[in-house]
Amino acid sequence: MAKKTKPKPVRVGREEASERLVQAVISLLDTTPMNELLVDLIAEKAGLASGHVLVHRYFGSRLDLLSEVAHTLAVQMIEGLRANVETLKNDPADPIVFLTAYGPSIGVFQKRALVVSELVLHGFSPEIHSADMKKILDAVQAMMELREIPPRAARATALNVLTLITMETTHSQWMGATQADRDDLRNMTFTEIGLASQISEMLGWK
């Protein structure tokens, strides 16, 4: 059997090279631990000649590249959530329709949570991506409000869901949580979504 050969690295313009590097990171996040997500691997995945040099030329450092990846993932999630609002307008009360529409965004947000956690670990200020986070929160809140959840409760529920995904992605293993524990937490959180209006009344929120 003939040995498989790696595709020959190519030379492209700055815009395409930058996009290739960003998309390479996003793809590698599916299978590669963050501590193994190094510049040489990213450059190889991007299929670029002198990829290591290009990361530093176009982004400054691996962390600056990750910062751009975090922004790209945020844009993907925001656009997806806003599209979901249009989908859910037809049947916002059906929990299956709701979760099916929301589901694809979870994977994107999990990747972003890993990247942002790495940036904060290396001294990046959370404020750098706070504007993107606010847009994500606004978009999730809009989805919650389609289920006739009052705005204050919809905001709190959206924040609850996003916090859950972040903690589950970045800290659950450190806490010794099993998969069963994480499944229980997720099921309880989604149950709370269905009860958000009642909880709002119990708390006296207007």
Outline the secondary-structure elements:
Blueprint: H1 14-28, H2 39-46, H3 51-58, H4 62-88, H5 95-121, H6 130-145, H7 151-170, H8 179-194, H9 196-203
Describe the structure.
The chain is mainly α and 206 residues long. The chain has 2 domains: 9-60, no CATH class; 62-203, Tetracycline Repressor, domain 2. The chain is built from 9 helices and no strands. Helix 2 (39-46) crosses helix 3 (51-58). The N and C termini lie far apart (70 Å).
* Fraction of residues in β-strands: under 5%
Assembly state: single chain
Give the H and E element order: HHHHHHHHH
Cα Rg: 20 Å
CATH class of the largest domain: Mainly Alpha
| Helix fraction by DSSP (H/I, runs of at least 4) | over 70%
Termini distance?
70 Å
Give the biggest sheet: none
Question: What is the number of beta strands?
Answer: 0
What count of structural domains? 2
- Mean pLDDT score, rounded? 84
Q: Classify the secondary structure makeup into a structural class.
A: mainly alpha
Mind telling me which CATH architecture of the largest domain this is?
A: Orthogonal Bundle
Q: Count of DSSP helices?
A: 9
What would a concise description of this structure say?
The protein has 206 residues and is an all-alpha fold. 70% of the residues lie in helices and 0% in strands.
Supply the key terms.
mainly alpha, 9 helices, 2 domains, 206 residues, Tetracycline Repressor, domain 2, 70% helix
